[in-house]
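FORM 12-B: Structure-to-Sequence Request
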């Protein structure tokens, strides 16, 4: 009983000190060529060019999270007040940053967005900047979570899909598929980053359910009718659901300073 009370008390303290947007200190560099990020480890390909006005980023493994971090949104600003504005830039994670000198490598468009007016060229000359950043919710106006059927999918049994437009501030850590109207679910495996696959796909129209984590807990989200019976590769299908949950991080003290 005493052990349980100690654990419960520790949990309450941890939860009370949690932030929804912890501020982190690091460095950021940039890619001079945009395709380097659009063709990155998340596998979004040419779709990434349309994400967030081309403000894209590669993140270190702790942010990439074996692909669960694909599509996560971050607000980043540089700490050089002479060169940079106070707002910074908002980016979407589309790639894995293999270099250990910076937490992020940004698209040049996102990198320049941190500059004061007239400082675009000067900020690019620096190459690497000291930054602070926080994770922020992704907001897709009038856009539900969607799935894209990958070209590698083969009827009748093998299906590979890519998740797009995940809102909120969460990660999808598990995914199941079933025929519409059935309670017989088959689990899907994360094939690579934002792509999930299964070789046990039933015939007919398909539904999906997801386990979404939001910090200290998680929940099921059910997309009841997503793929028609005659689903086709290369097509993006609307799930009809939106994810808006905000994750909690265990940072202490919980102080965003002048980040608003």
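FORM 12-B RESPONSE
SEQUENCE OUT:
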């Amino acid at each position: 009983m005493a052990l349980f009370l100690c654990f419960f008390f520790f949990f309450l303290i941890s939860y009370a000190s949690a932030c929804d947007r912890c501020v982190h200190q690091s460095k950021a560099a940039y890619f001079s060529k945009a395709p380097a990020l659009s063709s990155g480890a998340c596998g979004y390909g040419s779709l990434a060019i349309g994400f967030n006005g081309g403000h894209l980023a590669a993140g270190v493994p702790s942010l990439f999270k074996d692909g669960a971090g694909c599509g996560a949104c971050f607000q980043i600003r540089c700490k050089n007040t002479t060169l940079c504005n106070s707002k910074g830039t908002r980016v979407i994670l589309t790639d894995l940053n293999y270099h250990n000198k910076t937490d992020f490598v940004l698209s040049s468009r996102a990198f320049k967005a941190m500059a004061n007016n007239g400082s675009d060229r000067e900020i690019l000359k620096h190459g690497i900047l000291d930054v602070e950043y926080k994770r922020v919710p992704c907001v897709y106006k009038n856009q539900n979570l969607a799935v894209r059927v990958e070209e590698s999918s083969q009827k009748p049994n093998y299906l590979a899909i890519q998740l797009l437009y995940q809102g909120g501030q969460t990660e999808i850590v598990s995914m199941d598929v079933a025929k519409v109207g059935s309670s017989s679910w088959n689990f899907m495996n994360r094939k690579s980053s934002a792509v999930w696959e299964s070789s046990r796909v039933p015939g007919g129209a398909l539904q999906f359910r997801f386990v979404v984590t939001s910090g200290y807990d998680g929940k099921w989200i059910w997309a009841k009718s997503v793929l028609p019976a005659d689903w086709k590769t290369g097509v993006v299908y609307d799930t009809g659901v939106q994810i808006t949950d905000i994750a909690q991080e265990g940072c202490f003290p919980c102080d965003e300073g002048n980040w608003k």
